[in-house]
Inverse folding.
């Protein structure tokens, strides 16, 4: 099997993994946008009003990226946006950890203040997001994937 064929299958897997993660995260958060805003506020990075706005918009961005990844449309651009989102998540979690705050990241649920064990959770959250960042980075370099609309829209030949 040629290298570009393998990359297209790996790329499809990366596309679908990221779509599943972003889609699930967006759907969980969209159920309660106010709680999503409160979770963003717990990070203490932006003012509360901005946190509510970010918490309200973020699930829709995650869902939009997920849908584009599922169908494989604008894969490179979506992968760049996804990598930027993952880098932002990693930086936010690292910031909370460095400041000694003890919160649930709220990545796949409504977050909240924790009483203990946050350090272990931060390592797992950051490691997980680094894997997702790596998948997005792979797609930035290898946007041609199997079963993607990009092949028809951009008239990509095999």
């Amino acid at each position: 099997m040629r290298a570009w064929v393998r990359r297209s299958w790996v790329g499809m897997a990366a596309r679908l993994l990221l779509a599943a993660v972003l889609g699930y995260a967006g759907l969980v958060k969209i159920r309660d946008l106010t709680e999503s805003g409160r979770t963003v506020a717990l990070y203490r990075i932006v003012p509360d009003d901005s946190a509510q706005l970010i918490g309200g918009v973020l699930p829709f961005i995650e869902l939009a990226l997920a849908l584009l990844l599922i169908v494989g449309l604008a894969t490179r651009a979506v992968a760049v946006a996804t990598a930027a989102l993952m880098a932002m998540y990693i930086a936010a979690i690292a910031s909370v950890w460095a400041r000694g705050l003890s919160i649930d990241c709220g990545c796949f649920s409504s977050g909240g203040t924790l009483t203990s064990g946050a350090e272990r959770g931060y390592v797992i959250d950051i490691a997980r997001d680094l894997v997702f960042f790596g998948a997005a980075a792979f797609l930035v370099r290898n946007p041609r994937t199997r079963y993607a609309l990009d092949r028809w829209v951009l008239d990509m030949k095999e």
The first helix runs from residue 3 to 30. The mean pLDDT is 89. The chain has six helices and no strands.
